[in-house]
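Incident log, support desk, overnight shift.

02:14 A customer reports that sequence design results differ from what the structure should imply. Their input is reproduced verbatim below. On-call engineer (initials T.W.) acknowledged and began investigating.
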């Protein structure tokens, strides 16, 4: 069965899914922590956030499923880092999307 979301083009759907992954302040904070460290981080993410380990793990899972971070197993823990290619691609997609809105908005006078 097709959903309403399936009726949009793949690029629009991908942008929406990644935007949804960014739509929580904890996930944005996690991305900032990973960017500031510029390395794979295992358990230290929890130390930088006012959240329980289980909550951080759920947010990490969402970010990983969206393709924005990578996770590798290191013994009993998983180490995370930003995935630079999808982040750059998402930035380009957002730039293109908002440039199109700006262009259209420039010609509107309501």
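02:41 Re-run completed on a clean worker. Output:
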């Amino acid at each position: 069965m097709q959903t309403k979301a399936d009726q949009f083009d793949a690029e629009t759907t991908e942008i929406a899914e990644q935007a949804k992954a960014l739509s929580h302040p904890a996930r944005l904070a996690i991305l900032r922590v990973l960017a500031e460290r510029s390395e794979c981080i295992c358990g230290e993410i929890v130390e930088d956030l006012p959240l329980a380990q289980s909550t951080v793990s759920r947010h990490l899972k969402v970010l990983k499923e969206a393709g924005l971070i990578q996770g590798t197993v290191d013994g009993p823990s998983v180490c995370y880092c930003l995935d630079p290619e999808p982040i750059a691609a998402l930035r380009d997609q957002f730039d293109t999307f908002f440039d199109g809105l700006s262009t259209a908005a420039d010609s509107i006078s309501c």
